């Protein structure tokens, strides 16, 4: 996973440093650490999966434990996004020229973006073209964009239990328009369960960014 001449121990040290900078919500430190990883010629896809994935897990645990609050989530999310931009610039061309398209966003009524942003970055790293609609996205906006870009997947994120019905609304609206079969529906977020996915007729569920990428590839027959 790393270039010749870069020891495994040194690579792990750089990745752990990057992870720690993100967890510390240090934007400048995270960018500098990401550039060190790039300079060491560590595989950017592996770096994103490990450093960003682990940082997201730790930040989430700190939030659940009451050690971090909403501002920490926002700052950590901004740091992750900045790190993702550093890595995207050095992704191999065959990973950035994608044939499969994903439209992703956080559903109506939900302003949470951290998890969705990480999934979007992972999808890009995994070879998808990604259109990120942001947060508080109405069903009509998801469907209009998916039709416009001829998306293969519509990915719906929800962190609040109260906004879960808006995931179902997208599917129901697609059915009403007679175009449900044109798109695979991938859902995710803290309160999402396999039972909920089955109940609303979603095609796949990703509990985290790594699983989300794996499921997305399976849905469209990639790898």
Structure description:
This protein starts with 7 loop residues before the first helix and ends with a helix. By secondary structure, the protein is an alpha/beta fold. α6 links the parallel β1 (100-106) and β2. The radius of gyration is 17 Å and the shape is globular. Residues 1-5 have low confidence and may be disordered. It contains ten helices and five strands, in the order αααααβαβαβαβαβα. A five-stranded parallel β-sheet has the order 2-1-3-4-5, sandwiched between helices. The longest helix has 21 residues, at 44-64.
CATH H-tier superfamily of the largest domain: Cobalamin-binding domain
Question: Strand fraction band?
Answer: 5-15%
Q: Tell me about the biggest sheet?
A: 5 strands, parallel
Cross-sheet strand order for the largest sheet = 2-1-3-4-5
Unreliable spans: 1-5
CATH architecture of the largest domain: 3-Layer(aba) Sandwich
| Helix/strand order | HHHHHEHEHEHEHEH
Q: Number of domains in the coordinates?
A: 2
Please give the count of helices. Answer: 10
Structural class: alpha/beta
Helix content: 55-70%
Number of strands: 5
């Amino acid at each position: 996973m790393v270039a010749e001449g870069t020891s495994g121990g040194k690579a792990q040290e750089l990745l752990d440093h990057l992870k720690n900078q993100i967890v510390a919500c240090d934007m400048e430190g995270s960018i500098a650490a990401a550039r060190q990883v790039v300079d060491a010629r560590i595989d950017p896809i592996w770096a994103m999966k490990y450093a960003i994935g682990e940082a997201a897990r730790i930040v989430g645990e700190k939030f659940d434990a009451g050690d971090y609050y909403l501002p920490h989530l926002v700052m950590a999310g901004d740091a992750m996004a900045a790190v993702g931009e550093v890595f995207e610039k050095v992704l191999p061309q065959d990973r950035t020229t994608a044939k499969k398209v994903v439209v992703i966003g956080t559903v109506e009524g939900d302003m949470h973006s951290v998890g969705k942003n990480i999934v979007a970055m992972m999808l890009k790293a995994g070879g998808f073209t990604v259109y990120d609609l942001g947060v508080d996205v109405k069903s009509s906006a998801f469907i209009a964009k998916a039709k416009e870009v001829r998306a293969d997947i519509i990915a719906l994120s929800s962190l609040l239990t109260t906004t879960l019905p808006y995931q179902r609304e997208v599917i129901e609206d697609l059915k009403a328009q007679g175009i449900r079969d044109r798109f695979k529906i991938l859902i995710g977020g803290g309160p999402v369960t396999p039972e909920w996915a089955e109940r609303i007729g979603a095609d796949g569920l990703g509990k985290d960014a790594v699983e989300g990428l794996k499921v997305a590839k399976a849905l469209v027959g990639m790898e």
